[in-house]
Amino acid sequence: xxxxxxxxxxxxxxxxxxxxxxxxxxxxxxxxxxxxxxxxxxxxxxxxxxxxxxxxxxxxxxxxxxxxxxxxxxxxxxxxxxxxxxxxxxxxxxxxxxxxxxxxxxxxxxxxxxxxxxxxxxxxxxxxxxxxxxxxxxxxxxxxxxxxxxxxxxxxxxxxxxxxxxxxxxxxxxxxxxxxxxxxxxxxxxxxxxxxxxxxxxxxxxxxxxxxxxxxxxxxxxxxxxxxxxxxxxxxxxxxxxxxxxxxxxxxxxxxxxxxxxxxxxxxxxxxxxxxxxxxxxxxxxxxxxxxxxxxxxxxxxxxxxxxxxxxxxxxxxxxxxxxxxxxxxxxxxxxxxxxxxxxxxxxxxxxxxxxxxxxxxxxxxxxxxxxxxxxxxxxxxxxxxxxxxxxxxxxxxxxxxxxxxxxxx
Length: 410
Description:
This protein is mostly helical and about 400 residues long.
């Protein structure tokens, strides 16, 4: 069964990548790609990035634009930038497979689940920025946990710095690794000299990011201060709903272990979740959410006449159950790291003033790592999980290429 499942996973993975490659040349250039990302790559400079009153036109940190600017120096075309993004996705496939090969007997399936992230795949055929941070973060994770190089920690944190310079969310991964380092230091008889030595190294490695955030007076450029922090219950519900939509089958396969008296108090959270269901919107406000989960709930209301708030509640309950599965895991080094990284991601999502589904899905490679054992134990259901992720990805690519990029509303 495992051999058959892995072969099917490889076929589905190759199909997705081929579809994305084709989509590079048939997707219209519009939206953030034409308004923000492409112009920023064409005009990027160090001066434009660090000056508070500059015309730097992105909420992301600037490393991907510098890379894009170098490529545009060879040939100025947005299709070249899209091909560059496609190459970053190939690198992610490579390192995701290497990581999962070390932790699971179904690495092809888990790699497929990582790549089937719809918003991540958008970066495979358009010039959006979601892939760079994930790419550098996964390379860093591989070096930290699975490399035998003498200076593996140096390379691990160097790539984490590059990840932060590509996407601010990756600070969550960095802090999780720092917490793990502190935990290991305490477990090995606290060594103040080693701690100071590593701290000095980290300060040197992260000095570009520290300087950048200092000049910005925050984590985003002053021109994008609308992305500042504003915690809300609506964004907590949105987060839970997206996790439940993606990993609900895993929850259902482990439902017996969740039907225990000690989890009964969670029922009292359900009314709060119901009252804080975010509005489905194309905007990214404090009480709004975009994306596949809310869109799917809208279609359920449209065709099955089940209220949008009820289906979002159901997905949120599944997401809450997934959080229970995550929190009850043991505190081995890998689980400790994943709990820390996901806690950092989730705290940032809940506190964000402007939250989109693409932001939430940034954490899904790490959720896939965290639930690898549960996915593996699903046995015959693993195929259903793979098909669910694959079909969602195909639907999203098709929707974006033939409807969104043409300005057509479904």
